[in-house]
Design a protein that fits this description.
Layout: E1 2-9, E2 14-16, H1 20-32, E3 38-43, H2 50-63, E4 69-73, E5 79-83, E6 86-95, H3 111-124, E7 135-142, E8 145-153, H4 160-169, H5 189-196, H6 199-218, E9 256-263, H7 264-277, H8 281-297, E10 302-308, E11 325-331, H9 338-354, H10 360-374, E12 382-386, H11 403-412, E13 417-424, E14 431-438, E15 441-449, H12 455-474
Helix pairs in contact: 6-10, 7-8, 7-11, 7-12, 8-9, 8-12
């Protein structure tokens, strides 16, 4: 293994407060106790050299202040961001030789295996927030050609959409001269923080938090029926771990449980129901989640903090930064049909998105003040993050459910899989559900705190979302069955 240095320089530097999006991530970093890293492995076409990778990263780091940002802390622990206008960063090179030649740290000719191992190693250690640049870079090299690139980013630097914007910006580098072909258009974090200190931004925050106040005074304080001690309850041996009703139920002891549920039935059902209800699949999926959650917890209205990208706001669309903030989504699903639940989910999500741009410190103060008034903790540790791709509704138009289609959706339930990933003793939310695209169906990546939401309840929730949607395809007048 060897290293080369990448030198970079760019416009914009200084010290400033964290932006609202950065503050949200910093709160999560403190709650979870780790850097919440993003990134991954990218296979590269033939002929790419180390020098070309280094030049590309030097271009991107120079262009985007977020990648030149470190943190500073005062004697009271208050955190601010420090943006440098120049510096250098190491690029790690891992050489992987031919099979059996003894090179490449024992990986032989398996460059992909080596890349995955390097990504796991670089992700395993928290960033040094004050002294380390917020990106770690490595390449896998076979001979003189680079086969894979590995990048790990501190989440406070960018969110997934910010990472997408970073990758897209590489196309704005002239391959011959190495110079930029267009100016940076997205507002950097320092600029965001500066605006958020203005009277106009503070008024936006006040308006958003008035909505939060109305919701906080109206919802049940607790999200879950009872606390549980799942690791002592015997649920660990009953999880499905492959297809249908079969599974090993193998688990390791720990307070938090991670599960991945993949459903081809959900993927097939969503566009059918969306076409009939003349809405998007996001509203259909959110409604199904709200119904399933209410059935499992016995709490209504269903409450979830939805992750809002805020990319629709001026200057944020192409910003390499983190601008996500949680919106508060409240959906009453009692005693109505599922079509009505979809309409309510659409309205609730629109309100949540509209009011998800605010000062996190003022939000925390508001939650604490209303909790004191009510004399009980208000549990908001329940998140839903639909991060499917932008083309998820491309198949909606003109497709309506038929009896044959309903039967086909029901048959697909046999191919659903539930995998218990890990159980670990680390910080997390009480319930967090991510939704993603997957070749085999809609993928739910979940984590639950088993003191509040057992693994059996987690399985009931995931299969419940699927069941709600399958029933809705079959019956346009399906009821939510929530009392």
């Amino acid at each position: 293994m060897s290293r080369v240095l990448i030198r970079f320089a760019g416009e914009g530097s200084g010290v400033g407060e964290l932006s609202w999006g950065q503050q949200e991530i910093w709160r999560a970093v403190r709650r979870y106790g780790n850097s919440l890293s993003l990134g991954g492995v990218t296979g590269l076409p033939g002929g790419i050299t180390v020098a070309e990778v280094a030049a590309g990263f030097g271009f991107l780091i120079g262009r985007h202040q977020a990648l030149r940002t470190r943190l500073t802390f005062d004697e009271h622990g208050h955190v601010r961001q420090v943006v440098a206008d120049r510096g250098e960063i190491g690029l790690e090179i891992v050489d992987v030789g031919e099979a059996g030649d003894g090179e490449g740290d024992g990986f032989g000719a398996d460059q992909a295996k080596a890349a995955d191992a390097v990504f796991a190693r670089l992700s395993a250690t928290d960033f040094d927030y004050e002294r380390e640049w917020p990106v770690r870079i490595a390449v896998i090299r076979h001979g003189v050609a680079v086969t894979h690139m590995v990048a790990v980013y501190f989440h406070l630097t960018l969110d997934q959409s910010g990472l997408n914007a970073l990758v897209a910006d590489l196309a704005n580098r002239d391959p011959v001269t190495g110079l930029a072909t267009r100016l940076v258009t997205g507002t950097p974090p320092l600029g965001q923080a500066a605006y958020q200190g203005t009277a106009a931004a503070r008024q936006q925050s006040v308006t958003a938090l008035r909505y939060w106040e109305r919701m906080l005074r109206s919802i049940p304080a607790q999200r879950f029926r009872t606390t549980t001690a799942d690791h002592d309850s015997g649920h660990r041996g009953v999880g499905r771990d492959s297809v249908g009703a079969q599974g090993t139920g193998h688990h390791r002891a720990g307070r938090y449980v991670d599960a991945h549920f993949t459903s081809p039935a959900v993927r097939a059902a969503l566009p059918l129901i969306a076409a009939r209800s003349r809405t998007g699949t996001a509203s259909v999926l959110l409604a199904a989640y709200a119904v399933a959650l209410a059935r499992v917890t016995g709490r209504n209205p269903s409450v979830a903090r939805v992750v809002v990208g805020n990319r629709f706001r001026p200057g944020f669309a192409d910003s390499v930064s983190t601008v996500n903030q949680p919106g508060l989504c409240v959906i009453d699903v009692t005693g109505i049909g599922f079509e009505d639940a979809i309409a309510r989910a659409a309205r609730a999500s629109m309100n949540a998105y509209k009011h998800a741009y605010y000062d996190p410190a003022r939000r925390d103060e508001l939650v604490e003040a209303i909790a004191r008034e009510r004399g009980e903790e208000i549990d908001l540790s329940c998140f839903f993050n639909d991060r499917r791709g932008p083309d998820v509704d491309s198949s909606v138009a003109g497709v309506l459910p038929t009896a044959a289609a309903a039967q086909a959706v029901r048959d697909l339930r046999r191919d659903s899989t539930l995998r218990w990933i890990a159980e670990v003793e680390q910080s997390g939310e009480r319930l967090f559900v991510h939704v993603e695209d997957d070749p085999d169906g809609v993928l739910f990546k979940t984590r639950a705190d088993t003191r509040y939401f057992s693994s059996a309840e987690l399985e009931e929730l995931l299969r419940g979302v699927e069941a709600v949607l399958v029933e809705a395809v079959e019956d346009a007048k399906a009821a939510t069955a929530v009392g």
